[in-house]
């Protein structure tokens, strides 16, 4: 890959059409796109590193929520770290397979851990008494290990088929999957369907179900934090939908293209451009997660305040309930 060939090249493979228009578009905006990917990289790296540092160094009593948040941070870091590698040239096969694996692993694990965070909040609020014994550190670690194993399994096929091939100019190399000719169509359909199934047909419905149930419970509660919790719930769901649904819609359109439904050159170029923009929006989610899952949470803000006061002598006062009226649920890493 050169600087004008980004992650979208990994998904777009249509040799029947001339992509000169799309390629020139990205050539004109290559400097802007390069700068944008580096901005996302630094924001994701700094934000997630702060959360990781606080969780590992300054959180004494860890809960299931802390375990899920920790793994979500690691997943977002994988996505952030992969961005500079996509921007620069990849001239050897090991780096091609490495960046493919990091990207795929970050995509699947991040989506799964966001869903686990939703399920954790659902159990903590809707089934608070019944789930008290199940929401333990041990079960949190076990669930996280299972998620990472599933993510590795789902990412493996793309790593196996990742290859370097010469571009149209016969000078640059492109990193993308090269499937066996006899089963090429099947592997492409499987790749697209797997991503759609995970994000749109499994994780998103689970998130919506969990947060609808939470809203029902909160609407009947007189807790002083109810309004703040409801706002955070809408923020979590809306940002996930805004960041990932456009990407998955474009992936679905690519599936239709593989089925000869949208198999025209004009449609191919439009889908190619849409994928480039959708990926930028989706990748920005790794920068947003630290804000919506940590910086808004009461427990994390209090811990971060102590750290800043200790190391930088910053006096920051955060409004919150008095210690005598604080419960574990009220001080979890999310506001709900």
UniProtKB/TrEMBL annotation:
One of its GO terms (cellular component) is external side of plasma membrane. The keyword Disulfide bond does not apply. It is found in: Cell membrane. It holds the Pfam family 7tm_1. One of its GO terms (molecular function) is C-C chemokine binding. The chain crosses the membrane at residues 35-56, 68-87, 107-129, 141-161, 197-218, 230-251, 271-296. Keywords: Cell membrane, G-protein coupled receptor, Membrane, Receptor, Transducer, Transmembrane, Transmembrane helix. The keyword Membrane applies. Residues 47-293 form the G-protein coupled receptors family 1 profile domain. Belongs to the G-protein coupled receptor 1 family. This is C-C motif chemokine receptor 8.
């Amino acid at each position: 890959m050169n600087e004008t060939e980004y992650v979208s090249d990994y998904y777009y493979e249509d040799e029947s059409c001339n992509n000169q228009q799309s390629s020139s578009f990205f050539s004109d905006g290559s400097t802007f796109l390069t700068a944008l990917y580096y901005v996302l990289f630094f924001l994701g790296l700094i934000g997630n590193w702060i959360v990781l540092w606080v969780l590992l160094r300054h959180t004494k009593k860890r809960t299931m929520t802390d375990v899920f948040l920790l793994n979500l941070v690691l997943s977002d870091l994988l996505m952030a770290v992969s961005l500079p590698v996509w921007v620069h040239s990849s001239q050897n096969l090991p780096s091609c397979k490495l960046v493919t694996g990091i990207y795929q692993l970050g995509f699947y694990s991040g989506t799964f851990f966001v869903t686990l965070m939703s399920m954790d909040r659902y159990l903590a609020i809707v089934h608070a008494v019944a789930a008290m014994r199940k929401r333990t550190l041990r079960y949190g670690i076990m669930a996280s290990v299972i998620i990472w194993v599933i993510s590795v399994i789902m990412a493996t096929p793309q790593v196996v088929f990742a290859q370097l091939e010469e571009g149209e100019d016969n000078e640059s190399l492109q990193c993308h999957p090269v499937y066996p000719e006899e089963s090429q169509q099947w592997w492409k359909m499987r790749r697209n369907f797997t991503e759609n199934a995970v994000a749109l047909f499994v994780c998103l419905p689970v998130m919506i179900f969990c947060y609808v149930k939470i809203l029902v419970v909160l609407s009947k509660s007189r807790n002083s934090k109810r309004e703040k919790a409801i706002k955070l719930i809408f923020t979590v769901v809306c940002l996930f939908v805004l960041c990932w649904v456009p990407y998955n819609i474009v992936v679905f359109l690519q599936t239709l293209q593989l089925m000869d439904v949208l198999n025209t050159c004009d449609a191919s170029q439009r889908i190619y451009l849409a994928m480039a923009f959708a990926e930028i929006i989706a990748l920005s989610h790794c920068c947003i997660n630290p804000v919506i899952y940590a910086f808004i949470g009461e427990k994390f803000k209090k811990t971060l305040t102590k750290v800043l006061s200790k190391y930088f002598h910053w006096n920051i006062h955060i409004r919150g309930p008095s210690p005598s009226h604080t419960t574990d649920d009220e001080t979890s890493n999310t506001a709900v």
